[in-house]
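Hello,

I think I submitted the iron/sulfur cluster job twice by accident. Can you confirm which output corresponds to this input? Input:
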Amino acid sequence: MDIQKLQKAFEHKGYVFRYFDTLKQCCDYLDTAIDGVTVGLGDSQTLMEMGVYERLSLHNTVYSPMHPGAGEDFYSAAEKCTHTQVYLVSVNGAAETGELVNIDGFGNRVAGSLYCHERVYFVFGVNKIMPTLQEAVDRAKNIAAPKNAKRLGKKTPCAKSGDKCYDCSSPDRICNALTVHLHKMSRVHAEVIVIGENAGL
Ligand code: SF4
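Support: Only one job matched these inputs. Its output is below.
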């Protein structure tokens, strides 16, 4: 992985680029950079593995659909994430040419990555990085989505076989929108943070 090439590509797209060797180093950085604000988390295995909810909750107001509060569920917690100052999310695929790809079923993750926040942090491991945008899209559709369907116990053909997307019509389908960030969105401070470890699916 040529980190300098990656940095150049994402900086060209308007992002602040950071690289950390480990999940812990990344979490330490986020813990320092995000303080005294409201924070929303996209449901993400990478953020879960990092323990960012636990760390940031000590000195921020953090909402997470994967950590619903008393009387809340996934959806009500996700709703609160849409109006925070800061949003953290991972990606299902990233291209060495500087694009970010996400697939979503409910829409909270992609919505949070696009609009309504002062700062957005895209956090992902090197396993998400592919040479081209097409390969990043393929990764999102045929690797990340089936693995996530299986993890969530969905009744979909991909969850049974785990080998690829079958473009199903299942009520359990988790792939209802695919977003490609071609460039940083306008009027937002956005950082791309790459971790030199495998993280998430
Ligand atoms: S569209 Fe259906 S088969 Fe394809 S990855 Fe999504 S849930 Fe699985």
